[in-house]
Amino acid sequence: MSRMKTFYLETFGCQMNVVDSEQIVGIARQLDYVLVDSPDRADLIVLNTCTIRARAERKVYGHLGRFKPLKQQRPSLIVAVCGCVAQQEGRRMLEKTPHLDIVCGTHNLHLFADMLRRVQTRRERCAEVSFLDAGQRRRLFPERLPSDEVTRFVTVIQGCDNFCTYCIVPHVRGREVSRPSAEVLEEVRALMRQGVREITLVGQNVNSYGCKEGDEISFAALLRQINAVEGLERIRFMTSHPKDLSDELVACFGELEKLCKHIHLPVQAGANSVLRAMRRGYSREQYLDRIARLRQVCPEIRVTSDVIVGFPGETGADFEQTMDLLRQVRYAEIYTFLYSARPGTAAAELPDDTPATLKQERFDRMLALQEEITGNYHESDVGRVLPVLVEGSSRQGSGQLFGRTTWNRIVNFDGDAALIGHVVPVRLVRAFRNSHLGELA
Ligand code: SAH
Ligand code: SF4
Ligand code: F3S
């Protein structure tokens, strides 16, 4: 019998890549590769990449550089790049990186097995980066491996049509294509039978689900159907675009008992002039109105956000408007990014005369403000007893269990492993930056 082949996989970027990486694992397993946790002795190395900011892209080339000596030692090693940098760079990447064998774009995972065989049998280096269209929907939503986890992502929509002026995603992920609702439900039911208790519906903009000609139902209608799946405990979704947050969807937070009281609703900026230049499709006032409506139907809902600091032309006054919005909304958490010009995007052409040091200063001030707001939430939660869905044993190896509150906050506590997969009441006893310590109540 031949020796088992090994493969090493590293995943960068967002929820879309996490799902794609599961598929990569499935493909490699079918070709008799076993997953290992170090690239040093692997027969196949796969990087599933992200190019959302320049730094993410640079990181990929940094990682690839590390594999060059490995390839020199073992010329049979196969090095592959998948995901958004692969899509952005295409064949050019093979020219730039002589020890790279495979460039597999975001719509091309169905060709990955064949590409591997081409390299294995003919040492043929290959790049595949064509986009599929809605007619080839099945390939965009392939079958999944069974799961032994309590929580799981389920893709409902691929691509993005929004073309926010700073963003490369529509260029590397193609046009929006929704998955048929029957297929989504079928997958949710199958996951349920495997023991999954919480699902997160994912897409770059889930609120566009079902909005195109030929689609059947709205995202809110899909949520209602999933809410009716027996045995499922919780539903989340990610990411929502504020301009497409319909009244019907807002109402779901008041009606669907399984829908968690958390929404990630990235605002990006607080000044109307900047929102316009970003082509976000909503004003500050409209955004605040949607937050108010969410809190009206679901007073306990917690909101998180993404914010970009230093968009071209952002003035000091614009920045203060974002700071003011953060104080007004009181997000439970925000993810702050320094603007990064991306090739092919409209904003990359805009003049940008704000010095980097000033942007950094604004960035630091924003972090400090949010730290205070987030800290307040976490401190005032201490003492409360909350339902926690137990997901598994703590990653710190402390012998504890961990789970999440409806707000997606991690809680570590002592308990029996038999509780995994169940919702239990936990009293929060101490707040840390990234988690709470709790005790079974
Ligand atoms: N689809 C999601 C976001 C996807 S990208 C949405 O529309 O909200 C995740 C986050 O990265 C974005 O919300 C934005 O804050 C940030 N981002 C995207 N492009 C960026 C860029 N060029 N520079 C800095 N941050 C960026
Ligand atoms: Fe990018 Fe905007 Fe699409 Fe989000 S909605 S992925 S920020 S273009
Ligand atoms: Fe990155 Fe691609 Fe996601 S650019 S954020 S991995 S869609």
From TrEMBL:
Matches recorded under SUPFAM superfamilies: Radical SAM enzymes
CDD domains: Radical_SAM (cd01335)
Annotated binding of [4Fe-4S] cluster 2, by residue: C160, C164, C167
Superkingdom of origin organism: Bacteria
Pfam families for the chain: Radical_SAM, TRAM, UPF0004
Catalytic activity: N(6)-dimethylallyladenosine(37) in tRNA + (sulfur carrier)-SH + AH2 + 2 S-adenosyl-L-methionine = 2-methylsulfanyl-N(6)-dimethylallyladenosine(37) in tRNA + (sulfur carrier)-H + 5'-deoxyadenosine + L-methionine + A + S-adenosyl-L-homocysteine + 2 H(+)
Cofactor note as given: Binds 2 [4Fe-4S] clusters. One cluster is coordinated with 3 cysteines and an exchangeable S-adenosyl-L-methionine.
Obligatory cofactor(s): [4Fe-4S] cluster
Signal peptide start-end: none
InterPro entries membership: Elp3/MiaA/NifB-like_rSAM, Methylthiotransferase, Methylthiotransferase_CS, Methylthiotransferase_N, Methylthiotransferase_N_sf, MiaB_methiolase, rSAM, rSAM_horseshoe
UniProt keyword terms in alphabetical order: 4Fe-4S, Cytoplasm, Iron, Iron-sulfur, Metal-binding, S-adenosyl-L-methionine, Transferase, tRNA processing
GO MF terms held by the record: 4 iron, 4 sulfur cluster binding; metal ion binding; tRNA-2-methylthio-N(6)-dimethylallyladenosine(37) synthase activity
Domain TRAM: from-to ranges: 379-441
Its job: Catalyzes the methylthiolation of N6-(dimethylallyl)adenosine (i(6)A), leading to the formation of 2-methylthio-N6-(dimethylallyl)adenosine (ms(2)i(6)A) at position 37 in tRNAs that read codons beginning with uridine.
Family (UniProt): Belongs to the methylthiotransferase family. MiaB subfamily.
NCBIfam families according to UniProt: miaB-methiolase, MiaB/RimO family radical SAM methylthiotransferase
Subunit relationships: Monomer.
This protein's name: tRNA-2-methylthio-N(6)-dimethylallyladenosine synthase
